[in-house]
RNA sequence: GCCCUUGUAGUAUAGCCCGGUCUAGAAUUCGGCCCUGUCACGGCUGAGACGCGGGUUCAAAUCCCGCCGAGGGCGCCA
């Protein structure tokens, strides 16, 4: 079976009139008009009209929508509304027939519901709206890498199978590792900090895992995190890095992904910078003025963040959280040890990222672990690296899936993840 | 773990509140016939559904209970 093609569809154009071409794709639409027929064929680069006339009508034998075809034909001028050229077919080969009925309608005239689309996710990629989301996601990843690499960050890969569930906090998935208890990593936190010792500025974009039975549009059991850690940077420095990543993502996709925005039906708007920076203490005052009283040291609940989000509808940093709300490795402020050098990046009520300056002194780390009722001996593998000349460092982790929802203005992370994993969904 | 909503052809829906008018309607998809410029092609025609189990009633798609599935919210989420 010859599956070669001379052109991608986007490479075809009206100046090629009279030229013989071979291309492939899937049949989007098929309109038979007696002794002639029109079909529209799409590949990943675009869509093209194919015309069949007279004796060639037998070529349509057994042809149906969504089947994969290879078209041999000649470019000619078109009277079509949406095409200025078309291909007159001399041969149509069906390479793979699509069965009927299909579980969803990939043309998108009728939008199938999210459950059906996730159950048939591969076919959902024939829907141009869905495909556009994942084309955008790819651009976003490329943009983030470009921004970080320009700033001397080195991309790393840390283990996802880890030997101890020592950090506390979220529940981890356990698994059997040749007879030993192991866990799926919930974050690269300890490894990325260690890497600053020699690579100074590192980042990782990877899946992490959390065994919480969350049922919301913003939590998944398996999610993609963008993490950075940088030597000789304070928390405000890595906030600047984060801000430029976000702004670059919006700029790049807004300017270079017009087709995708059109298919999705959403116009990406570049946020104004610098992002507002609100301290935890200021946030308490703002909430107090809305008659919401919170004691210093209390965590902000979802409802509180929603109230704050109404006052700050776009991107803003929430900084200087109380130490007692932060994990053991966070550094305190010099002028007020009750406060931390930490921040969250919010988009309205939605938390996109959190980070801060880390402790780099091993003795301080040991005593902080004890304060938080964690056992320093179970951190010895980590703590020993801090005796080897660990530079002061800061970093953050950002939920990529959440950033995607903000970018395209939707409210369910399942839309922007190929095969989402949540407590009720393990397949496909 | 808790709360709310929901389940009708392949898809997406009308009907449900207020039981009988439902032999369950329209769209799209699919099959057949007609059509040489369609472009959501058109015309004629055909096929296709009340999640499962129980109950109430003369009568259940419609009301009640259970199960299963789905969507959303709260909580959890260093």
SSE topology:
Blueprint: E1 20-33, E2 36-43, E3 46-53, E4 68-77, E5 85-96, H1 114-119, H2 121-124, H3 128-150, E6 154-155, E7 161-162, E8 174-177, E9 180-184, H4 189-195, E10 201-209, E11 222-231, H5 235-256, H6 258-264, E12 276-279, H7 280-289, H8 302-311, E13 315-319, E14 342-347, E15 350-358, H9 362-371, H10 380-383, E16 393-399, H11 400-408
Parallel strand pairs: 3-5, 6-10, 12-13
Antiparallel strand pairs: 1-2, 1-4, 2-3, 4-5, 7-9, 8-9, 10-11, 11-16, 13-14, 14-15, 15-16
This protein binds one RNA strand of 78 nucleotides through residues 29, 31-38, 40, 49, 51, 53-54, 64-65, 78-83, 100-105, 107, 109-116, 167-171, 186-187, 189, 210, 212-217, 219, 301-303, 325-330, 354, 372, 412, 424.
The CATH architecture designation of the largest domain is: 2-Layer Sandwich
SSE sequence, one letter per element: EEEEEHHHEEEEHEEHHEHHEEEHHEH
* Residue runs with pLDDT of under 50 for 5 or more positions: none
At CATH level 3, the topology of the largest domain is BirA Bifunctional Protein, domain 2
* Helix segment tally: 11
- What is the share of helical residues? 25-40%
Distance between the termini: 31 Å
Structural shape = elongated
Task: Describe the model.
It contains eleven helices and 16 strands. By secondary structure, it is an alpha+beta fold. It folds into two domains: 9-96, Nucleic acid-binding proteins (OB fold (Dihydrolipoamide Acetyltransferase, E2P), Beta Barrel), CATH 2.40.50.140; 123-416, 2-Layer Sandwich (BirA Bifunctional Protein, domain 2). Strands 6-10-11-16-15-14-13-12 form an eight-stranded mixed β-sheet, sandwiched between helices. It has a five-stranded mixed β-barrel with strand order 1-2-3-5-4. A three-stranded antiparallel β-sheet has the order 7-9-8, with no helix packed on it. It is elongated, with a radius of gyration of 27 Å.
């Amino acid at each position: 079976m010859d599956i070669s093609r001379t052109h991608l569809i986007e490479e075809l154009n009206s100046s090629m009139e009279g030229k013989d071409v071979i291309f492939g794709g899937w049949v989007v639409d098929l309109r038979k008009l007696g002794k002639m027929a029109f079909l529209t064929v799409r590949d990943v680069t675009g869509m093209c009209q194919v015309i069949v006339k007279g004796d060639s009508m037998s070529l349509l034998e057994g042809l149906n929508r969504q089947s994969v075809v290879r078209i041999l034909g000649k470019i000619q001028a078109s009277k079509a509304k949406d095409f200025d050229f078309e291909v007159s077919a001399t041969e149509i080969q069906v390479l793979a027939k699509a069965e009927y009925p299909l579980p969803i309608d990939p043309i998108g005239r009728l939008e199938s519901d999210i459950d059906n689309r996730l159950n048939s996710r591969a076919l959902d990629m024939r829907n141009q709206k869905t495909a556009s989301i994942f084309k955008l996601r790819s651009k976003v990843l490329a943009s983030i890498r470009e921004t970080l690499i320009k700033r001397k960050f080195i991309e790393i890969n840390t283990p996802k199978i880890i030997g101890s569930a020592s950090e506390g906090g979220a529940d981890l998935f356990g698994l059997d590792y040749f007879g030993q208890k192991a866990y799926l990593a919930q974050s690269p936190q300890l490894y990325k900090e260690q890497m600053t010792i020699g690579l100074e500025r590192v980042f990782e974009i990877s899946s992490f895992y959390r065994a919480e039975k969350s049922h919301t549009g913003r939590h998944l059991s398996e999610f993609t995190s963008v993490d950075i850690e940088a030597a000789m940077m304070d928390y405000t420095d890595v906030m600047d890095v984060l801000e430029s990543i976000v702004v670059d993502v919006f700029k790049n996709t807004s300017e270079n992904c017009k087709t995708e925005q059109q298919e999705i039906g959403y116009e990406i708007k570049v946020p104004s910078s610098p992002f507002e920076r609100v301290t935890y203490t200021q946030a308490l005052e703002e909430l107090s003025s809305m008659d919401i009283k919170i004691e210093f040291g209390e965590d902000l609940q979802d409802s509180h963040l929603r109230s704050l989000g109404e006052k700050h509808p776009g991107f803003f940093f929430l900084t200087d959280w109380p130490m007692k709300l932060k994990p053991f490795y966070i550094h305190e402020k010099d002028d007020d040890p009750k406060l931390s050098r930490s921040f969250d990046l919010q988009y309205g009520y939605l938390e996109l990222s959190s980070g801060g300056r880390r402790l780099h002194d091993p003795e301080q780390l040991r005593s902080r672990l004890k304060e938080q009722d964690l056992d320093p001996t179970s951190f010895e593998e980590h703590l020993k690296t801090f005796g080897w000349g660990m530079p002061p460092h800061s970093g953050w982790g950002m939920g990529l899936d959440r950033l995607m929802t903000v970018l395209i203005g939707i409210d369910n992370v399942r839309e922007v993840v190929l095969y989402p994993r949540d407590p009720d969904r393990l397949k496909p």
